[in-house]
Amino acid sequence: MRVSIAGAGYVGLVTGVCLAEKGHDVICVDIDAEKVAMMREGNPPIFEKGLDELLKKHISNKIMATTDLEEAVSSTDITIIAVGTPFNGKEISLDFIRDAARQIGNILRNKDSYHLVVVKSTVIPGTTDTVVLPILEESSGKQAGADFGVGMNPEFLREGVAIEDFMTPDRIVIGGIDDKSRQTLAALYDGFPDTKKFMTNNKTAELIKYASNSFFAMLISFSNEIANLCSLIGGIDAVDVMKGVHVDRRISPLQPDGKRVSPSLVTYLEAGCGFGGSCFPKDLKAICAFGDKVGNPFRILNAVVEVNERQPGQISNFLRKHFKRFDGLKITALGLAFKPGTDDMRESPSIPIINELRAQGAQVTAYDPGASDQARKILGDDAIVYAETLDDAIVGADAIVVLTRWEEFRRLPELLDKVGEPYPLVVDGRRLLNKESVKRYEGIGL
Q1: How far out from the chain centre does Cα 278 lie?
Q2: Structural domain includes residue 205
Q3: Radius of gyration in angstroms for the set of CA atoms belonging to the chain, rounded to a whole number
């Protein structure tokens, strides 16, 4: 099929290269000319495992990049809206969604053939039907259902493994205003014959996305609450507690041969210094605001947000157990991105942690295998030293805080053994390391 994608960010670009890999002809559209130029050269503007290879493989063949939305929509059968929906403090902003819908509608006014418009951006229930559809009808002068279709197709991509998630999905949610919209959208995914296609209306598709993200975020905050309790009362390790929970056969079922299945779900039942990224924080705040608006406050989810916003403060609490003041203290922050495998700094717990350390007078050195360039844009580089290697980052540190679960950081105990005295304090904000492998160790939930 011929597909155009409005918005070439994380979701739009990953969707584009993966659909190209499945044999579709894809045109990625973005208003950022510099980003488009990079894509045309086969260089993805974002860091994502496997994205570079797929883009180079298909650029100028199965996938094109342009700033010309009119050309893209006019020459394709389906247009996917994958623009941002930032949270403005009270609700998600639909400005980009409205602009995209208006432009697409204007283009459809002069198009005779049937065209399907699909919202992939994360939007609150009702947005596709009550915001996007009316704008499309008004700007095109045509009738939804009769002249064009409207669908909703939420993404379930985890940054760092987004390519893998797209290519091996556990379900594909297909929303639409009518059977033709849904069937046209379903045809886009014919290359996934063994994947469950969940056919529904647009509102349900929209809420499935929020319910899914809210559920996993809730597991994380629950685990952090248990971990914080363990830290307070002493003599308990939250890692052991959660391992005891994991072996419940309702979570990790036993196979007939007696072997236990450990689903990826259990990774959300691990303590840390908080979740971040472009999805969980924004989506929880958005659905909570929506619940308040319609008279159904989300008490549990509001608590999940509150717990997560407090959690980065645990790092400073551990440091204060060993240092009376931070002024002049040399602290190395290992990990800047909100999770490994990405350069995404959005809502990363490293931001409030590092800002607090700097405000208290600490001298901060930071190292991240992939996110240093993005971090400079957010944290600046006037008061932070960005190390080029892990080895360089730990030299002379009074304390080291682990903020992201990069596999490279597992080398830390080995490197510290070579440093000698004085041995730095290690605060493990992700419980990545074996607590016995580090001489001076503090960890979330310990």
Answers
A1: 5
A2: no
A3: 24
CA distance 103 to 30: 13
Q: Let me know: does 53 contact 20? Beta carbons within 8 Å.
A: no
Separation between Cα atoms, residue 140 and residue 441, nearest integer Å? 63
Structure tokens given for 363:
């001298």
Tell me which residue of 158, 131, 136, 162 sits closest to 147, measured CA to CA.
Answer: 136
Looking at the predicted structure, is the pLDDT value of residue 254 above 90?
no
Rounded to an integer, what distance in angstroms lies between the CA atom of residue 216 and that of residue 267? Answer: 10
**pLDDT tens by residue, 325-357:** 999 999 999 999 999 988 889 999 999 999 999
Q: Which long-range contacts (CB under 8 A, 24 or more apart) does 250-259 make?
A: none
Q: For 171-214, how does the pLDDT look when each residue is reduced to its tens digit (9 = 90+)?
A: 999 999 999 999 999 999 999 999 999 999 999 999 999 999 99
Active site residues: 279
Instruction: Give the end of a domain, one of 166, 200, 234.
Output: 200
Q: Are 6 and 12 in contact (CB under 8 A)?
A: yes
Q: Does the CA dihedral 18-21-22-27 come out positive or negative?
A: positive
Give the distance from CA 134 to its chain's centroid. Answer: 30
| pTM recorded for the entire structure | 0.91
DSSP 388-423: SSHHHHTTT-SEEEE-S--GGGGGHHHHHHHH-SSP
Q: Which candidate, 232, 374, 219, 376, places its Cα nearest to that of 301?
A: 219
- Nearest-angstrom CA–CA distance, 404 and 349: 9
The rounded distance, in Å, linking the Cα atoms of 216 and 235 is 28
What span, in angstroms and rounded, lies between the C-alpha atoms of 186 and 119? 14
Whole-number Å distance between alpha carbons of 344 and 139: 35
Q: How far is CA 218 from CA 223, 224, 298, in A?
A: 9, 10, 12
CATH code of residue 41 = 3.40.50.720
Q: Are strands 172-176 and 441-443 parallel, antiparallel or unpaired?
A: unpaired
| Contact (Cβ atoms closer than 8 angstroms) between residue 159 and residue 48 | yes
Catalogue the E-assigned strands of 189-308.
Answer: 197-200
3-class SS of residue 430: coil
Q: Are residues 301 and 429 in the same domain?
A: no
Claim to verify: residue 30 and residue 83 sit in the same structural domain: yes
Report how many domains make up the chain: 3
Using the Cα atoms of residue 299, residue 304, residue 309 and residue 312 in order, give the sign of their dihedral: positive
Find the domain containing 246 and state its range. 212-310
